[in-house]
């Protein structure tokens, strides 16, 4: 019999809420984290909007020592560490006070990222090109290596199991949860901290702006700009942040009387091979559908059991394909289609951080039994309206009986992840 | 810059790196930065960079290797500052 894996801790640094309490309130109230960024206008970006978390000096002092603050300036790394530490504390797991403690051989971390250290890398490139390489100091490598976040968290928490980083573009965060689940299921660890993060700013987003995948029509009305599933969606709003989940083997969680947010029933990752309709940037629809059905099979549930889809849904033309792929994979159309919402309608697209932030949102909805609004979806895209009943789209926050959430993330490279979370009931 | 001024500024530079606060409070010229203050040896590189910036000097690798105690760090800074003027 498969080992059962549960989520016992959550942490989040999102554009519309830093910390679990603020983020849950933002979801409950449909609060947008999207704003105008003058710097982007000055630099001639077509899209001048962003979703960036606000970090206070107080929060920085809470999470980092004076020396750490002096050494750290890579924004993605900072978001990741804060989210990871919040999740660990939220799970009630021990944080060693000194380096004298023995490593926790059964606890590990998989923390993914995209361009977490790009602002630090930029400074290092300037110094290097100015022949000042000896002035780089000892902080550049650890802040710009993709495994910098897992390395930092591993050291702080004394993790002695698998400590690594994954990268699969916008699929990264959901993929890290699936990787952690599989490692735990294989009996190789008892607790895995899974998460992802990404940095922000013009040097992360420039390439996307030039590709014309960012929105350009709503610079005057930031909160309306991220419009997943809308007929007037014109591209995504770039975002950043971090999210983290503590995954734990059920027996281990029960033995220490941990709070359980939900069960990770199963998941699947694949690629469409960039064949058929698939390219570097577009999905092979068969690949997407196989990923969804693969996740359901892995979770041991029927398509009809899905109560809510927390979509990838970025506010691009890809949303139509995504909904059509869900309908085909679940074989549920029209009124039979489950509820669907998109966290990105409130945060923008947090790139490599998106999957983990959205998994945190999924677990909060499961535990608190509500569905958050999918903002700006009033003018549903006609091809989506042809495929599913409009009422499936969550137009306002409401209490709802949700037992199963399917959460998907897709990324450049035609890569897909889908994870299935189940509500935790103590009597089962 | 007087020796006393150098010492005060140096103290500010190394303070965040110190892991033994008691030794820092009772610091003397003989205090060893790695052994007594328990500064991470990798961080010595950053302390040297901070010193270079603060005192507008350049500390080459051979000189840096001889900088083990607080007193030696002050001596080196004083010598390099004087040479500069």
Describe the structure.
The complex is a heterodimer of chains A (428) and B (85). In chain A, 36% of the residues lie in helices and 19% in strands. Chain A has 428 residues and is of the alpha/beta class. Chain A has 2 domains: 5-255, Thiolase/Chalcone synthase (Peroxisomal Thiolase, Chain A, domain 1), CATH 3.40.47.10; 267-422, 3-Layer(aba) Sandwich (Peroxisomal Thiolase, Chain A, domain 1), CATH 3.40.47. In chain A, the strands form 3 sheets. In chain A, strands 1, 2, 5, 6, 7, 8, 9, 10, 11, 14 and 15 form an 11-stranded mixed sheet that branches. A two-stranded antiparallel sheet of chain A has the order 3-4. In chain A, strand 10 (308-310), helix 13 and strand 11 (339-341) form a beta-alpha-beta unit. In chain A, helix 5 (75-90) packs parallel to helix 8 (148-157), helix 9 (172-185) packs across helix 15 (354-368) and helix 12 crosses helix 13. The longest helix of chain A has 16 residues, at 75-90. The mean pLDDT of chain A is 97. Helices cover 58% and strands 0% of the residues of chain B. The longest helix of chain B is centred in the C-terminal third of the chain and has 15 residues, at 70-84. Chain B has a single domain, classed as Orthogonal Bundle (Non-ribosomal Peptide Synthetase Peptidyl Carrier Protein, Chain A). At the A-B interface, helix 4 of A face helix 3 of B.
């Amino acid at each position: 019999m498969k080992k059962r894996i549960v989520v016992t801790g959550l942490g989040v640094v999102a554009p519309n809420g830093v910390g679990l309490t603020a983020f849950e309130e933002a979801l409950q109230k449909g609060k947008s984290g999207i704003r105008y960024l003058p710097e982007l206008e000055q630099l001639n970006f077509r899209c001048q909007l962003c979703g960036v978390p606000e970090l206070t000096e107080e929060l920085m002092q809470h999470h980092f020592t004076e020396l750490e603050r002096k050494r750290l300036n890579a924004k993605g790394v900072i978001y990741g560490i804060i989210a990871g530490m919040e999740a660990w504390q939220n799970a009630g797991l021990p944080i060693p006070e000194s380096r004298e403690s023995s490593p926790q051989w059964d606890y590990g971390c998989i923390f993914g990222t995209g361009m977490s250290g790009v602002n630090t890398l930029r400074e290092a490139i300037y110094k290097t090109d100015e022949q000042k390489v000896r002035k780089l100091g000892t902080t550049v490598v650890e802040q710009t290596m993709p495994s910098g976040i897992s390395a930092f968290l591993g050291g702080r928490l004394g993790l002695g199991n698998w400590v690594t980083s994954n990268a699969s573009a916008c699929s990264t965060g959901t993929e890290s949860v699936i990787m952690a689940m599989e490692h735990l299921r294989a009996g190789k660890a008892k607790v895995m901290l899974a998460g992802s993060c990404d940095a922000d700013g013009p040097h992360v987003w420039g390439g996307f702006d030039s590709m014309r995948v960012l929105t350009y029509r709503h610079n005057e009305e930031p909160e309306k700009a991220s419009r997943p599933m809308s007929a007037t969606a014109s591209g995504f709003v770039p975002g950043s942040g971090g999210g983290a989940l503590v995954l734990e083997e059920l027996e281990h969680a029960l033995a220490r009387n941990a709070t359980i947010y939900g069960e990770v029933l199963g998941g699947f990752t694949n690629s469409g091979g960039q064949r058929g309709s698939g390219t570097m940037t577009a999905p092979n629809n068969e690949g997407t559908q196989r990923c969804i059905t693969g996740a359901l099979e892995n979770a041991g549930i029927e398509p009809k059991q899905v109560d809510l889809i927390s979509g990838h849904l970025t506010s691009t033309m890809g949303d139509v394909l995504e909904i059509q792929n869900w309908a085909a994979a679940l074989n549920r159309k029209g009124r039979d289609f489950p509820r669907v919402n998109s966290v990105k309608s409130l945060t923008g697209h947090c790139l490599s951080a998106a999957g983990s932030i959205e998994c945190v949102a999924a677990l909060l909805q499961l535990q608190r039994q509500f569905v958050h609004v999918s903002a700006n979806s009033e003018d549903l895209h006609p091809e989506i309206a042809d495929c599913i009943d409009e009422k499936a789209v969550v137009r306002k926050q409401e209490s709802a009986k949700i037992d199963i959430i399917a959460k998907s993330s897709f990324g450049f490279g035609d890569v897909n992840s889908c994870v299935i979370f189940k509500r935790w009931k103590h009597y089962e | 810059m007087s020796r006393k001024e150098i010492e005060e500024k140096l103290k500010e530079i190394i303070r965040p790196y110190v892991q033994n606060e008691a030794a820092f409070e009772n610091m003397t010229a003989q205090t060893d930065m790695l052994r007594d203050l328990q500064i991470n040896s990798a961080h010595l590189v950053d302390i040297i960079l901070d010193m270079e910036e603060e005192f507008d000097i350049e500390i080459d690798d051979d000189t840096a290797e001889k900088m083990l105690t607080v007193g030696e760090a002050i001596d080196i800074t004083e010598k390099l500052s004087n040479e500069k003027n």
